[in-house]
């Protein structure tokens, strides 16, 4: 009764939350397994950003509920954003669910599972469904454990929870609560521990990571709390690369732009959500920047790091988006020349202002606009990758590729690279000469004599 499988939907924050829960369960004596068929307990860590993610999780839980009806000892539960958003309402259509645990209560999962497992092992009655979506002060400090077998070359570190923005399309403030930052010293201690175990690259995580410590930690020497944290992480021995996600354009002031110039471990890659290139649509989204301001941020980043790589988020088909609005998005897309983008068709989220707006866009129009931007993205990404042919890129070796006898790793610009070499290079920074490129990947060979074997 102690074998647990956790299936995660959604973002890197959810992945990190699942990892922390798994680590806590291992400490309690549970065993994490790789598939639902070999598990006694299945937990779905859910996402509410788009309806499709919710429907996938609900469909999966309906399938698991069928097994539970024939196996009463089987335990199933929801965690995360959808659990937080829907709460006990999920039991109306899925009465067999045992656990519904919100985003601020992940660290209580081992205790709640014990309430089901111990009575069943003793052959006595088990409790009815448990629903816990309460807020909990200090919950941001509980996501700190890492799985021992996943403490590899790269690691995610959660530095905050919550979001204080009010974008009209987004349900995250409801599911994750207000912004709450972890202390800088605790974050640094966690990363130092990871570095001691061989981690070379850190990605700092937050709903709006650039808002870290706003209103909680004072600005010093003109530097925001987030830049202060970056400076501390940059000093940690053993850490060679720093990344972060997901930021907001309003967080890119001069101090952060200059951090790309001054901090050698901060990679020249930034995820800078645009959402729309139309000022009219940005106002309707309640995004507090204009097209002009966004492009000024891009220019400032390129001034401090000329080789900067950019990725972004785009929503097509937002209510009221005209052909001219979409054209303006395409113009910004071309001007920035994104290397990667997450392009989403607008999805209604109940409880958000955008869901009730007039002039909802037909599905076929959303799909057409989505395809246009995907085609542009493929051309831009291929052009940028082909420009690297003949250059030598620093690659952090992550491990063997899934197919063939290649190693794989990422450049500082977050491009995936494949090359031949010994597995003893895993965790090392190596120079790779790029010989071939596709829109998504680079292929090359090691440069230094004697490194190949």
Give a description of the structure.
The chain is globular. It has four domains: 3-132, Rossmann fold (3-Layer(aba) Sandwich), CATH 3.40.50.12160; 151-267, Transcription Regulator spoIIAA, CATH 3.30.750.210; 296-386, Transcription Regulator spoIIAA (2-Layer Sandwich); 392-446, OB fold (Dihydrolipoamide Acetyltransferase, E2P), CATH 2.40.50. The chain is α/β, with parallel strands linked by helices and 453 residues long. The protein is built from 13 helices and 19 strands. It has a six-stranded parallel β-sheet with strand order 2-1-3-4-5-6, with helices on both faces.
Gist?
With about 450 residues, this protein is of the alpha/beta class. The protein is built from 13 helices and 19 strands. Helix 9 runs parallel beside helix 11 (about 290-305) and helix 12 runs parallel beside helix 13 (about 365-385).
Please summarize the sheet with the most strands.
Answer: 6 strands, parallel
Percent of residues in beta strands? Answer: 15-25%
* Euclidean distance between termini CA atoms: 46 Å
The pLDDT mean sits at: 94
Q: Which architecture of the largest domain would the CATH scheme give at its second level?
A: 3-Layer(aba) Sandwich
Please give the domain count: 4
The CATH homologous superfamily of the largest domain is termed Methylthiotransferase, N-terminal domain
Rough shape? Answer: globular
Q: Unreliable segments (pLDDT under 50, ≥5 consecutive)? A: none
Query: What Rg, in angstroms, do the CA atoms define?
Result: 23 Å
Q: Count the E strands.
A: 19
Number of contiguous helices: 13
Strand order, largest beta sheet: 2-1-3-4-5-6
> For the record, what CATH class of the largest domain applies?
Alpha Beta
Structural class of the helix and strand makeup? alpha/beta
Any idea of the CATH topology of the largest domain? Rossmann fold
Helix content: 25-40%
């Amino acid at each position: 009764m102690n074998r647990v499988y956790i299936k995660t939907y959604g973002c890197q924050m959810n992945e990190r939350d699942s990892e922390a829960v798994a680590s806590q369960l291992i400490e309690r004596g549970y065993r994490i397994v790789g598939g639902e068929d070999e598990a006694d307990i299945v937990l779905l860590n859910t996402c509410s950003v788009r309806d499709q993610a919710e429907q996938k999780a609900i469909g999966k839980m309906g399938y698991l509920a069928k097994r539970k009806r024939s196996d009463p000892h089987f335990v199933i539960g929801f965690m995360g954003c959808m659990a937080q958003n829907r709460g006990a309402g999920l039991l109306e259509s899925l009465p067999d669910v045992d656990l519904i645990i919100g985003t601020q209560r992940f660290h209580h999962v081992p205790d709640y599972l014990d309430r089901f497992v111990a009575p069943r092992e003793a052959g006595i009655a088990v409790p009815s469904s448990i629903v816990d979506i309460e807020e909990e002060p200090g919950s941001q400090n509980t996501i700190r454990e890492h799985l021992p077998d996943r403490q590899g070359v790269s690691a995610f570190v959660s530095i905050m929870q919550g979001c204080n923005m009010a974008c009209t399309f987004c349900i995250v403030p409801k599911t994750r609560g207000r912004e709450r930052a972890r202390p800088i010293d605790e974050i640094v201690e966690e990363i130092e521990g990871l570095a001691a175990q061989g981690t070379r690259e850190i990605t700092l995580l937050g709903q709006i990571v650039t808002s870290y410590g706003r209103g909680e930690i004072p600005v010093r020497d003109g530097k925001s709390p987030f830049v202060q944290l970056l400076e501390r992480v940059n000093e940690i021995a053993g850490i060679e690369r720093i990344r972060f996600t997901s930021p907001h354009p309003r967080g890119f002031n001069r101090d952060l732009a200059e951090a790309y110039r001054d901090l050698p471990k901060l990679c020249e890659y930034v995820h800078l959500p645009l959402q729309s290139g139309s000022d009219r649509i940005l106002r309707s989204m309640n995004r507090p920047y204009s097209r002009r301001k966004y492009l000024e941020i891009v220019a400032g980043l390129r001034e401090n790091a000329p080789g900067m790589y950019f990725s972004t988020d785009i929503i097509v088909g937002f209510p009221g988006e005209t052909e001219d609005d979409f054209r303006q998005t395409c113009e910004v897309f071309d001007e920035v020349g994104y290397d990667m983008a997450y392009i989403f068709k607008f999805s209604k989220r109940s409880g958000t202002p955008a869901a009730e707006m007039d002039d909802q866009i037909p599905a076929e129009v959303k799909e057409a606009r989505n395809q246009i931007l995907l085609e542009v993205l493929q051309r831009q990404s291929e052009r940028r990758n082909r420009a690297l042919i003949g250059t030598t890129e620093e690659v952090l070796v992550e491990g063997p590729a899934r197919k063939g006898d290649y190693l794989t790793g990422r450049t500082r610009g977050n491009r995936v690279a494949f090359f031949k070499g010994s597995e003893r290079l895993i965790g090392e920074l190596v120079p790779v000469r790029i010989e071939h490129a596709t829109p998504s990947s680079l292929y090359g060979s090691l440069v230094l004599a004697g490194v190949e074997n």
